[in-house]
Amino acid sequence: MCAKAYCVQAESTPACKCGGVLMGEEKMFQPYFLEQMVNMMHAPFYIFADQKEMIQKFGGREIETILFEKNPELVQNAFSKKNKEYPVILTDKVLVFAVFDSGMAEGAIMIAGPVTIGRLSQETLLQLRREYKLGRKSGYTPPVCPLDKFVSGILLLHWHLTGQKLTSAELWQKNQRYYSATVNIQNRISQDIFMRQENAGLHNPYEQELRELDSIERGDTEALKRSISETYEGEIGILAKDPLRSHKNVAVGNITLASRAAIRGGISVEKSFSMADSFIQQVEEIDNVPEVEAFKRESQYFYARLVNEENTRGGEKQNVRKNPLIGQVKDYIFNHLHDTIQVSDIAAHMQVNPDYLSHLFSSQEKMTITSYIRQEKVRRGENLLKYSDYRVQEIAFYLGFCSQSHFARVFQQIVGISPNEYRKKFGNRKKWKMK
């Protein structure tokens, strides 16, 4: 350990090269903490002296050291953006960094990263290696850290360094000054509104959108069809310069709004969100505008049909306003469909009395919790029989049934035919996309 009290030096690191630069005087920093941050965030951490020389690293690979050496502008940019009050989040192409100056010794900074917030395609990786002078054969692949986890790690480290607590909202608000898009937001909005008023005319009426969402919330596919078919003078907004990208962006917005309307209509939050994730991913795979439009509309109909099915028991529409606990029960079941689910487990998770929960659910859903569990497991089984090649035995165990015969018996009771008959009748042997 360096003689200066504020130096950080991992046990495996050679003697300190600068005499200690990490923390201010009378502060001790434990390398153990940064080592655990590396494990948590999958991000390397580097300490740079005021001469912009790397003097410490945690979790960093040799290839990342080479990246900084061959691209000194990255470190120069970090030093130019350092701020004593809060961490600064920087991006360079697809790489993301965080710069820490607060809590550091005079003239020193810490850089967290580089990471990417999602996995990169092979084409992007090759381009990245070329642009950072690493060579096509270097094999460099940045570590992946989702943005929310990266931000949480940054906030935790800032607190550890300074004792100051920041929220994620405060962090982004303070970082706005470093992003040209946020700095210029008001000017760009004024320009875009002016150009639209001059060239594009009016948007579609807001009331029409409300009618669409209300139809989904009520599970009324006929009303949804009428709303979609309305004629009006307005136009769909232009959300990107490329027409395909613009229509995809509109579809993403419509699907997101439909998922929220479905939740208001009684669909489980987790189920609705998971469906939206799937729908949006499928939109991204489409390569032409007409198919995007057709898929967007079918997604809306899908939600409306699901709401109608969810809220219709015994052929009668249920109009009772549901207790919020009902949604929590459905969320729990949706997240544990692959397990053996007991009512007592749900009640314990929600910290309510099992008998009260059972009575509440039965009175509002017109079926017992156990029956609902079976119904949802069979629904998932139908999808697997339609769209996967799993054997019936595999599906039975996948859904938490004790045996294939038990699954077949419950399936027959609910659907009316056996799993094998169902697959012969409806199976298409294609990769399944829904639910």
UniProtKB/TrEMBL annotation:
GO terms for molecular function: DNA-binding transcription factor activity; sequence-specific DNA binding. PANTHER family: ARAC-FAMILY TRANSCRIPTIONAL REGULATOR, REGULATORY PROTEIN POCR. Residues 327-425 form the HTH araC/xylS-type domain. Keywords: DNA-binding, Transcription, Transcription regulation. Pfam families: HTH_18. InterPro entries: Homeodomain-like_sf, HTH_AraC, HTH_AraC-typ_CS, Tscrpt_reg_AraC-type_HTH. The keyword Transcription applies. This is HTH araC/xylS-type domain-containing protein. SMART domains: HTH_ARAC (SM00342).
